[in-house]
Specification:
four-stranded mixed beta sheet; 9 helices; 42% helix
Amino acid sequence: MLDSLATSEVVHTLQRAAQVIRWLPDPEPPPLAAPPVGRLRVGVDLGTAYLVLVVLDESGQPLAGEYQFAQVVRDGLVVDFVGAVDRLRGMKARVERRLGRELTHAASGYPPGVPLPEVRAVANVLESAGLRCTALVDEPTAANALLGVQTGAIVDVGGGTTGIAILQDGKVVYTADEATGGTHFSLVIAGAQGIEFEEAEALKTNPDEQSRLFPLVRPVMEKVASITARHVHASGVLVESLTLVGGTCAYPGMAQVVEQYTGIPAQVPLHPAFVTPLGFALHDEATI
């Protein structure tokens, strides 16, 4: 069931996140009127296409954050350690200026199925950037920390992979992850249009172009749906709803294609790119 997906609390949190998490090319916001008091909860998402840092207050509401395009991870594996550390260190410093407080810790995560040594590499990036890593959690489980889905499947479509978590009574009973994500949308567009990847990435996120490009990316959407259907079947669990998260799922028509292919009702929450980073922050249980 998607009982919590449309609750006012979840909607408010996602709306607030979209307001305070800065896209790096945009002008830097002014500092807060006063530094926040109490415990801060910090989440870092090292994605295949985007790097996100978000800070929550004690009640779990977003205070500040930043995200930027970054190709420092591929399929859950850190492929540019120095680049990841440098970018995260810069993000940390800018968000600290905005908050008027130092950030000392954060939680992060990984796609399901990533080998443990690679999971540890994520923690090493955080720690090298000056953030003590307090928790590492798989991405769909992190997403559910915000959404609170009790029964159904969360499908986290990232830049490079599609991760699935199947839940019963609020507990994850099955996880899986396979290559296919938003980067594949961009590769298909680049090939079909004869343009560079970066230009294809910009076209993909341009609302004025998305309808025209839909026939090109639909097969990739169907691949995501195929992965989802196969793992739902493999789990042996009766899944009656799908919750799609990750920035790729903001592409118009994504939920409809997945629902048509799988035969399972599918829904995308507001601002799906921020669901998993917020979930990571909710797993940051540091006391100082």
